[in-house]
Amino acid sequence: MSTKNKNPFLNILSVNPNYNYFSNESGFLNELKKPVFKKEQFVISNLNIKNTITSQISISKNIPEEDLYDAITTKAYDELALDQAIEYQINYIETNVRIDEKNRNFYLFIVEPSIVEEVYKTVIEKIKYVDIIIPTPLLIKSLYQKEIIEDNGVHCFIYFQNDDAFIAIYNEYEFIYAKSLKYSFSQMHEKFCELYGERIEFKDFMDFFQKHNLKDTQSDYKEYFIKLYKEIFSNINDILTYIKRAYDLESIDRVYIGSEVSTVTKLNEILEYEIHIKANNFEFDYGFEDNKVYIDQIHSLMHLYTTISDDEKYLCNFTTFHRPPKFTQRQSGKIIILTLISIIIAFAYPVSYWTLSYAQSLQLKLLNKNYENIHNIKSVREVTIKNKELEKRKALKLLNEQKQQYTNKKNTLIKIHDVKVNYPMKAKLLSMLTKDINKYNVKLNFISYSEDADIKQFHLNLISSNDKQITSLIKHLTKKYHDKFDLSIKDIFYEKSNNIYISKLKVIIL
Length: 510
Prior knowledge:
By secondary structure, the protein is α+β, with helices and mostly antiparallel strands. It contains eleven helices and 17 strands. The strands form four sheets. It has a five-stranded mixed β-sheet with strand order 3-2-1-4-8, with helices on one face. The longest helix has 109 residues, at 331-439.
């Protein structure tokens, strides 16, 4: 696949594990009931989270890039206790979750090859190959790259499918977590029957889910659907609580919730009421034409994924059903091409020898004509360059003048800032000290302030009728402001004539 936004294939075909196919031709999405093999179509599919083992691991930054896959694979087998007899498919993406500065952090997606073979057996029988099989939560990255979702922060995505359901977390546009939920439609149906106390048909369950609004319906199912939703959203709330704690997140800013089939019930309103987080429908304007019919959002995401370049999306491909290489890249093709080239060269040599003289005479005329044109262009450009150099010198002179004006204004602002910030700071510190001095009935008869290099200090003359008041004051200040001041005092003098004690206190601001 090209790394450019323009896909070189004539059409894109998406297929999910339920064997639903959607074709994208010229921006129009259309469901295909009977897909067929075409060399010119690009095929993409999604891998349900329930079929994958997911985990986060850390790898030392000292490991070179060429050894990274082997290091991740070895650590995955050890830490996740994987069966050594199975050669798992292991793909990973690097995350921006920072545990420490010495390691790189990766989110792993691990799949047994037999699962992929089993899931796509029917697909391969029809269309021969699948170019990309990507874990479903990683498709959401496309929404950010296409600026369909613009708000930053922590976003949660919840999606219900017939045979799976998942929750995915993105923080500042980057994937950090995914988990399969035990609330696929089939599992929800089983749970509903358990709550209802009676077995109902799956078709009736899905019909109520899609066509009945819980706000308006008078159906007997209403009460039990509400209980079902409360249980689901309570479980989701527990997961979000764990995620916030595990990934040190202050909050979940927004939740997007949806399903592969349409429903008139506002799931986002129920979710928002239950867990008190702003919620929206998992339904977006992807820019595709769809005949105003509801299309599974995962299919739309797969088609959106194919429109962005490789450096903008997560590359995590589990396909084992690669299309055959081009004819020119096969060994048999290379041999045939070399044979044809040899034959052509053998016959072409005499003809080329006969025509060489005539071709060279034509070439000489063309070169002479080109020389005249190039010489004229050169002369014009030399004059243009001289004019541009003159303009450049004038611009540089003006730039230097502007720089000098900027420097002068910057220095003035720095002086103003120093006066506005430092002087109030000194007054505040003195106010703090004098409050404590008054509490111990000690008086001041002199205060001075000085700065020497990086040392800023106050000198205070303390006066008291009792030397214990001064010592008590010093102990209090030392204990209270040990992180703000370095206090020192040499002696306490007794002035007999006035019956007072005098001491000089030096306060160094830390």
